[in-house]
Amino acid sequence: MRIAVTGIGMVTALGWGAEANWEAMLAGRSGVRPITRFDTTGMRTRFAASVDLPEDRPRHPVSVAERSRRLGEAVIAEALAQAGLEAPFPGPLCIGLPPVEIEWPQRLELNAADYPGLIEAASGRLDLQAEFLFGGTATRLAERFGTRGVPQTVTTACASGSSAIQMAIEAIRRGETDCAIAAGAEASLQPETLIRFSLLQALSTRNDAAEKASRPFTLSRDGFVMADGAGALVLEREDHARARGAAILGYVLGAGEAADKFHRTRSTPDGSAIIRAMSRAIADAGLEPSAIGYVNAHGTSTPENDKMEALASHALFGEAPPPISSTKSMIGHTLSAAGAIEAAVCLLALRDQMLPPTINNEDPDPELRLDTVPVARKHRFEAALSNSFGFGGQNVSVVLGRAD
């Protein structure tokens, strides 16, 4: 059984809509810019690839939960429209989302000095409960699009979007549904999260040239760039899609995952968990590594991650891995949404037989020995691999195939 993709939706700092994003990526544009959503005075990192909304107000931006919902709604609506479907959708929603907690503006509003005081001050505030209840975003999206059953919310850090795709294809394979929506939405860019990642020394501090800060696979890479964004795919059994006359945009051929317990932010030094995730996805697709013609890298621009991904690529593919590019160089790291967005990018690359670039590649790291596609180019290939390696050791890879 093949799982067909009949709809794609995408929102990133480059724009709203899959085609607008794809055009910008092929042109090598950067969506990274100084943060205006909140005051960054005194912060080590003062830029991001943000998706701002008209409702954002100084000192009181739209919350993570509400922004995630808005972005998720936009990409699911786009994907359904392309698939020729509308609400109620006759399948489940599987979606990767960020963890949700009460944010600084709400805490300041409650004026509580400690956690017990916060709980007491929030007593009876049903508005806060409704907005920040874990899973509430997915529930609202499920209600909006009339999806079937309880929405499946997954939070596996940077692998969440890919995990959602894996959950959706497994449900279709098991015969539980003919179709599913697989999505990821991310809007964690707020002061506390930015500071937390900064304390982990995970973020770039290239404040003087924000658009050049995301530099995967280069000698000068110094950390990732936080980003908002969302992506969605409509997945169907191939025969179901053909029976209703839907245009097939490509296929999700397989997925693989592997846990890594070595360190909360670093991979096992031999790259074994990353290799297992990649090889399991390729095997699940019924392919050999030689069939993969392009890899959309996790490629975060951190010194450690890029080195480990290069090590794993050589271990799996040999001395000459397929071209591997990181679209995070343009749209930043969309965290929970990255896997869904990057799977969509692979499908567009397969459709047009074009490889998106890794920009800001003026000083490629020679030790990595990778073709990182510094400029978009034509390329003939039938299958692509999308990698998502999350903090906490959650690694998921997805194999995408070209439409017949």
From TrEMBL:
Entry's Pfam families? ketoacyl-synt, Ketoacyl-synt_C
The record's CDD domains line, in alphabetical order, gives: KAS_I_II (cd00834)
Q: Does Transport show up as a keyword for this record?
A: no
- Taxonomy, superkingdom: Bacteria
UniProt record similarity statement: Belongs to the thiolase-like superfamily. Beta-ketoacyl-ACP synthases family.
Pathway per its UniProt entry is: Lipid metabolism; fatty acid biosynthesis
Q: Which InterPro entries would you find in this protein's record?
A: Beta-ketoacyl_synthase (IPR000794), Ketoacyl_synth_AS (IPR018201), Ketoacyl_synth_C (IPR014031), Ketoacyl_synth_N (IPR014030), PKS_Beta-ketoAc_synthase_dom (IPR020841), Thiolase-like (IPR016039)
Has keyword Transferase? yes
Q: Where is the Ketosynthase family 3 (KS3) domain?
A: 1-402
Supply the name of the protein. Answer: Beta-ketoacyl synthase N-terminal-like domain-containing protein
Question: What SMART domains does the entry give?
Answer: PKS_KS
Q: Coiled-coil regions in this chain?
A: none
| Protein keywords | Transferase
